Amino acid sequence: MLTKWFRMALHLDAIGKAQWLFTKIKFFKQFEGRPIAQYSRKDYLTHRDRAFSLAKERIGHFNGFYGYKFNKINIKNQKTRWGSCSKRGNLNFNYKILFLSQGLSDYIIVHELCHLGEFNHSRKFWNLVAKTVPDYLKIKSELKKTGISFD
User: Fold this and answer.
1) pLDDT tens across 63-75, in order?
2) Residues 139, 130: Cα–Cα separation, whole Å
């Protein structure tokens, strides 16, 4: 009897793993034929100053419209994020924004800037984003297809 339950548990575990595997295969098919770029710590150190200049210039541009007060801008080598905004008003950006098109990097910068006005992802927040990036839904979708790896 115990062997029967054990075999059934193994079978169910295998089904779960197979479903997970098929989900991952489906996800990675969208990148078929496109290289997935990877970056090193050396890349980060080489490009962070240029990424800072880009972020500072574009924040200045968009904040002319919003007029938010912020503490400081940081460029990081984040593993899983394009950017973040802290409760203290710090705007943090992944140095890899430097390698995106201006439309994509502007979306990320506006997104984090708008968190200074709305610290959530409510309808009110997205309305703020839409004031300077009206096609943000299309850009948000495009950002997911960049092929840039966070490894």
Assistant:
1) 999 999 999 999 9
2) 11
**Strand, coil or helix: 73:** strand
Do the Cβ atoms of 56 and 112 come closer than 8 Å? Answer: no
The residue length of the chain stands at 151
Per-residue pLDDT reduced to its tens digit, 28-63: 676 676 655 667 889 899 999 999 999 999 999 999
Helices (H), 67-122: 102-114
Indicate the pTM of the whole model. 0.74
Kindly indicate whether the domain formed by 41-143 is annotated with CATH number 3.40.30.10.
Answer: no
Interhelix angle 136-143/123-132, rounded to 10 degrees, is 90
Quick one: how far is CA 148 from the chain centroid? 10
Rounded CA separation 52/140 (Å): 22
